[in-house]
Amino acid sequence: MAKQQTSIEYQGRKVRRPKGEERRLAILEATLRIISREGVKAVRHRAIAKEADVPLAATTYYFKQLSDLITDAFNLFVERAQINQAKLEKNSFDALKSFSLEQLSESKNKTLLADMLAKQFCRHIGEEVDRRAERVIENAFRFEATINPQLRQITHLPNQKTIHSICQFYTILGSTDPSSDATILHSVILQLEYQNLLADEFDYERTYRTLRRTIDRSLGLL
Predict the structure, then answer these.
(1) Where do runs of H (alpha helix) occur along the chain?
(2) pLDDT tens digits for range 1-33
(3) What CATH architecture is 71-219?
(4) Which part of the chain engages DNA, per the record (predicted)?
(5) Are 96 and 113 in contact (CB under 8 A)?
(6) Which CATH superfamily is domain 16-64 in?
(7) pTM value?
């Protein structure tokens, strides 16, 4: 069995000069723009060169294989998305730290924590949905991973990192099955993002109620 990748590794040609890195980045950003408009199937060397305003030879120099170009575009997308994820993680643990473990043994304090978390996750989902182009890219990569073996090997990384963080959160709370609780909450958040992305406007009330019920159940409040 192949060893599972655990960190981001760029596949394209390595660059040593700043100018080369600028051109490589321009190619990757152009790739993401095309994916946001037309999907992964539209990624071709000639189309990327035109979008990035670089010679065709530049795209094939840095990315001989289209699969490497798609993989590295995904890696760039993930690196940038991790900034927002880190913000949510910090806010969640800050909310947890506002209570002692003794205080969280009382239902009223668990209820307060659940409310704080549900509101934080609602804001996060709303912000994610507002970045519609990014969500389109994310879902395009998710679909491509089902038919692209190279991409499939790395698409688990951001989800794995997020679930691990949520798992730590539930471990502190004394969950009897933190891994399952983390997987359930993460799945609900992704589904709510997708539902709101398809809707005409962000449904805060429904999103909050769904999150509260999910969190309440995991905290033993139901």
Answers:
(1) 18-38, 45-52, 56-62, 66-97, 107-130, 132-144, 149-152, 156-172, 178-198, 204-218
(2) 344 454 556 666 666 666 778 899 999 999 999
(3) Orthogonal Bundle (1.10)
(4) 44-63
(5) yes
(6) Homeodomain-like (1.10.10.60)
(7) 0.84
